[in-house]
Design brief:
heterodimer; A: 201 residues; alpha+beta; Glutaredoxin; six-stranded mixed β-sheet; two-stranded antiparallel sheet; 5 helices; elongated; B: mainly beta; Immunoglobulin-like; eleven-stranded mixed β-sheet; 1 helix; 11 strands; 50% strand; globular
Chain lengths: 201, 159
Amino acid sequence: MKRPFVVFAGLVLLLVVGIGVFQLTRPPVLHGTLIEPAKPIPDFSLQSRDGPVSLSTFRGRVVVLYFGYTSCPDVCPTTLAHLRWALNELGEQSRQVQVLFVAVDWQKDTPERVASYLSAFHPDFVGLSGSKEQIDAVTKAFGIFYQINPPDENGYYTVDHTATTLVLDEEGRLMLTWPYGLTAQEMLDDLQVVLRNSAGR
Amino acid sequence: MKHWWLVVVSLVVLLSACGSNDGMQHGSGMPVGNMPVLTVGTLEIYAPRAMAGAKGQTTGGFLTLKNTGAAAERLLGAWCDAATMTQVHETVMDGDVMRMREVESIEVPAGGMVELKHGGYHIMLMDLKQDLKAGESTLCTLKFESAGEVTVSFVVMSR
């Protein structure tokens, strides 16, 4: 073998190994916005179809929290479908993740209605409803805006709401937010980083 | 340089190793087929579809409109058999806040097209009269300024 070739091949090998090491050791890039330090959230309790549910019930698991309403035909289903895909991709690991859907339309969204809406997405998604006072308190704690608009002449109304998805660590602290518009793959990437970090603690 | 091909191979290997994430787009609209499901004059309607939903729920309807004519066309309203009430809405992101508003009409510019898709314009099938299951279809009548009333079958897609 000629010497220049050996030198060249050696350089290429060095480059490949170098890039590999760099890729493995650099801090993971999150697609969402990391909240540092993670923000403690006061515990709350809302109604699910199967009875009252407290946030603290899910200590030890990463909680993905989304606020929406069941008459939302567009943005809410997109986010929920993304989450379903990400959870399916996680496989076994998805047991460490709990998706909660808080229905802000306290006028219409009963626990049964919310559960029926969610069943179209994933059997393990938990839907939560509450009175106006309860929903106001929970949305305030998370900095979520919502507004039930005045009904039209037929009694139909829309609800404006923050479309951001929130991620809470195993101690129930707000640690990451996902703006609307992230892809399912980006959510999956972030969940994998969050789960990897929590396993190391 | 005798071993130029080695350089090429190494580069290909490196590039494929770096760019592994293709960022899957999930739940976005169906690609517009090559063929319109219906043509009325200069108006072409592509891929009418509605999302599955249970009785009493609200779901979204989507489609693409193409105008091959020299004058603008307008979608003025919609009525779907499966829904107690049908409205045409637009989703607007106002910072982080999602707002939905009923729109009076949607303009399809001359020689242009408009997509009714997630995150934008959509038809609201409100208070479904019965379950809408994936694979079924539902008839919707669309009212246009020039083309008049047109009835199209919307295919129901899974969520």
